[in-house]
Design goal:
3 domains, Ribonucleotide Reductase Protein R1, domain 1, mainly alpha, two-stranded parallel sheet, 6 strands, Fumarase C, Chain B, domain 1, binds arginine
């Protein structure tokens, strides 16, 4: 083995306990990508002969090909992805023994993980952009459909269903910005930081950084091997995103109940019950909501790992990846399946409006009508509130009232009130910037 320090081999139990191959093998390609840049730099700076560097690159390409062809079976006895690849390289090409010149696994793992996370975030960025497109398309499809809007889960005011979808568009748009912030914060190259303090050899850190497509090399070698806050930035993005997912799912689950019943979920995205033949369960939405805690948990896991760690690298950091992968895999699968489900959601406007007709969600419209006639808002609020109570006692809705009943309750009212009592007009009238009025929703769509 490559260790001169020990007289005895590592105990098998310790090897099993400390290996990280099961977590980090998925970064094999990124590890080779990092090594290719490193060895190229070693050649160009004269630390290796150009021919030596080229031979090592050829060797690395062969290892990569073996991985692609499924011919490479890594071994846990070699601890991790880095040692496995280096060992196989050196079998194929003995000059591989020079690859680790001026490098430590501490700067290597930091580089490899950033490369891997960058790839995954770029894919996720695409998925999230698709998701945003779907929300926009839904807003266009449902622009003219009216549903009850809720505060405290009580009917509040009628809104455009398009407005609802665009509310989520805004939230997920901010998530997409947070994703790009996470991409920015990983955009510095750790290679060359060495184990912690840099190298006595005259390497060129700008070169490896450029070759790997990073914006610049990291500025402090101690910080480079010790820090993982670029991962925390990912986890924060993911946790906020999943919190949004969870709330969206809750709405759709509620609106899909028999009691609300104004959302129609696609059959192919629902499940039946093994016992109750009538059931059409929204399991995709429930599972998505249910996975949210895990994603937030992975963020907490890393915070708790990091909070007591002394400068600089500690092996605790090897545990940073387990939660990161789990989180990435979860977020990716949730965004994809929700996207496919949302494209197919339909709204039953008749049922949504039926829900509205029994409520008093036009009360604010009445108060504001009075305000336009010169009644102070507080007074208008009081009078409309009393009228609502009177209607409830007499089992009437606002649209059941005759004009003389209106007059009896609110003397300041005039005939015009009879013309403003439809939910559609109510929505159309809320034409303030960002409001639910159809023209406003259309403006938001145009701006997107
Ligand atoms: N497998 C380790 C990790 O994921 C990298 C190896 C660093 N090991 C060490 N003893 N310095 O963090």
């Amino acid at each position: 083995m490559w260790h001169g320090r020990f007289k005895k081999d590592m105990a098998e139990s310790v090897r099993d306990f400390t290996q990280s191959l099961d977590i980090d093998w998925r970064m094999a390609e990124c590890d080779i990508q990092g090594s290719m840049a490193h060895v190229k730099m070693l050649g160009q700076t004269g630390l290796l002969k150009v021919e030596e560097a080229e031979k090592i690159q050829e060797g690395l390409k062969k290892v990569l090909a073996e991985i692609h062809e499924g011919k490479f079976t890594p071994s846990e006895s070699l601890e991790d992805v880095h040692m496995n690849i280096e060992a196989r390289l050196t079998e194929i090409e003995p000059l591989g023994a020079k690859l680790h010149t001026a490098r430590s696994r501490n700067d290597q793992v930091a580089t490899t993980t950033r490369l891997y996370l960058r790839e995954r975030l770029k894919t996720l960025d695409g998925d999230l952009k698709n998701f945003l497109k779907t929300l926009k398309a839904n807003a266009e499809r449902h622009l003219n459909i009216i549903i009850p809007g809720y505060t405290h889960m009580q009917q509040a005011q009628p809104i455009s269903m398009g407005h609802y979808w665009l509310a989520w568009y805004e939230a997920f748009k901010r998530d997409s910005e947070r994703l790009n912030f996470a991409l920015d914060s990983l955009n510095e190259c750790p290679l060359g930081a060495g184990a912690l303090a840099g190298s006595t050899l005259n390497i060129n850190r700008e070169m490896t950084s450029d070759l790997l497509g990073f914006a610049r090399p990291t500025r402090n070698s101690l910080d480079t091997v010790a820090s993982r806050d670029y991962m925390l930035d990912y986890h924060y993005f993911a946790s906020v995103l999943m919190t949004h997912v969870s709330r969206l799912c809750s709405d759709l689950i509620t609106w899909n109940t028999q009691e609300f019943a104004f959302i129609i979920l696609p059959d192919e995205f629902c499940t039946g019950s093994s016992m109750m033949p009538q059931k059409k369960n929204p399991d995709v939405l429930e599972i998505s909501r249910g996975k949210t805690g895990q994603v937030i948990g992975h963020m907490l896991d890393l915070f708790i790992n990091l909070k007591g760690l002394p400068m600089t690298y500690n092996r605790d950091l090897q545990e940073d990846k387990r939660g990161l992968w789990a989180s990435l895999d979860t977020v990716e699968s949730v965004i994809k399946i929700l996207n496919d489900l949302l494209i197919r959601v339909e709204v039953d406007e008749e049922k949504a409006l039926a829900g509205l007709s029994k409520g008093y969600s036009l009360a604010t419209d009445i108060a504001e009508y009075l305000v336009a006639k010169g009644v102070p808002f507080r007074e208008a609020h009081l009078k409309t509130g009393k009228l609502t109570a009177w209607c409830i006692e007499n089992n009437l809705s606002f649209s059941d009232l005759t004009f003389s009943q209106w007059k009896e309750n609110i003397p300041e009212i005039d005939e015009g009130i009879m013309k403003i009592l439809s939910p559609r007009d109510s929505v159309a009238r809320r034409n303030t910037y960002g409001g639910t009025g159809f023209a406003q929703v259309q403006r938001q769509l145009n701006e997107i």
